[in-house]
From TrEMBL:
<dbReference type="InterPro" id="IPR002575">
    <property type="entry name" value="Aminoglycoside_PTrfase"/>
</dbReference>
<keyword id="KW-0808">Transferase</keyword>
<feature type="domain" description="Aminoglycoside phosphotransferase">
    <location>
        <begin position="65"/>
        <end position="263"/>
    </location>
</feature>
<dbReference type="GO" id="GO:0016740">
    <property type="term" value="F:transferase activity"/>
</dbReference>
<dbReference type="InterPro" id="IPR011009">
    <property type="entry name" value="Kinase-like_dom_sf"/>
</dbReference>
<protein>
    <submittedName>
        <fullName>Phosphotransferase</fullName>
    </submittedName>
</protein>
<dbReference type="Pfam" id="PF01636">
    <property type="entry name" value="APH"/>
</dbReference>
Length: 312
């Protein structure tokens, strides 16, 4: 597949002398397909042909333009100046195609290390430092996610799960109710930039470098939003692979320990709310949106939710 002329024009405007470009679809999502552009460019300084990979993500409406501005702000505020804790460089936005162009995230995703979490603690510690760095940044372009919105989402997931599994309805509704009640008592606090889907599949590791991508749920919010998502997703991946949450406990402990070293203590104070909140969202996705064949894991996951809430 050849690249559209509009893409080549934008790349040329950024100083890339593209001599050859091949395109393939990386992910054929209905609303947000992702494209892989393999470029052969002429380097005027060396007189040689060089290869470069650019990733394109197509958005509907004005979402791509807004996301490009968010990524550019993050790049300018610090992620472009530190090769060890970074994001893919935002290259350009192509309005005619609704296409956001960015650099390739090098390395393999952190999820590849989940089978042996105790051996890869250095990677998860770097991921924690990356997140603390994000939470300490200014981000004027981010939308605000209110705690009331988070609470309503948790309540909605709880209702759907309770209707789907009436035998567990009382437990699910109690868990969701505690999440909602806790969020109403957190009170007003300065919001920070949050990734929104901070989890191992969105984190690439290459040597000492951590690159985080997929900022589609980026918003100003409570920092525990990202912490809860990471922990709940890691627990989910551990249970899916090993049938237990225990395997990933050293991984999550190292992550939180490192994060606390680089962030204010109040950032982790709401973990007992946001881990169950993320669990409810994951359960809703697995059992309601794209239902798995065997839901027998539900009681163990509800146990985990209740244990986290009891820590509050």
């Amino acid at each position: 597949m050849d690249a559209p002329h509009a893409v080549l024009e934008v790349l040329a405007a950024r100083g890339l002398d593209v001599r050859k470009c091949r395109v393939r679809v990386m992910r054929s999502y209905r609303y947000r397909p992702i494209f892989h552009y393999s470029l052969t460019c002429f380097d005027e300084a060396t007189g040689a042909l060089v290869r470069k990979v650019v990733i394109g993500k197509r958005y509907a409406g004005e979402g791509g333009a807004a996301m490009f501005e968010v990524l550019r702000e993050l790049w300018q505020n610090g992620f472009g100046g530190d090769p060890r804790l970074t994001i893919p460089e935002p290259i350009a936005y192509v309005p005619a195609l609704g296409l956001l162009l960015q650099d390739l995230a090098r390395g393999k995703d952190l999820h590849h290390h989940i089978d042996h979490p105790a051996r890869s603690l250095r990677h998860v510690r770097r991921a924690a430092r990356w997140l603390a760095k994000l939470h300490g940044m200014p981000a004027s372009r981010a939308p605000l996610l209110r705690l009331s919105d988070e609470a309503e989402s948790a309540a909605r997931h709880g209702r759907a799960l309770g209707e789907l599994f009436p035998a567990f309805a009382r437990r699910v509704e109690a868990i969701a109710g505690r999440v909602v009640a806790s969020m109403t008592t957190l009170g007003a606090r300065p919001s920070v930039p949050t990734h929104g889907d901070f989890q191992p599949k969105n984190i690439h590791v290459s040597g000492d470098r951590i690159t985080v991508f997929d900022f589609d749920r980026f918003a100003l919010g409570h920092p525990a939003r990202d912490l809860g998502q990471f922990i709940a997703q890691c627990l989910t991946m551990s249970y899916t692979r090993a049938g237990t949450f225990r395997e990933v406990e050293p991984w999550n402990a190292a992550f939180l320990e490192e994060y606390r070293r680089h962030a204010p203590p109040e950032a982790t104070s709401a973990l007992s709310t946001f881990v169950p909140r993320s669990f409810l969202e994951i359960l809703h996705h697995k059992l309601f949106v794209f239902p798995v064949a065997d839901p027998s894991f539900l009681p163990a996951w509800l146990d985990a939710c209740e244990q986290w809430e009891d820590l509050g």
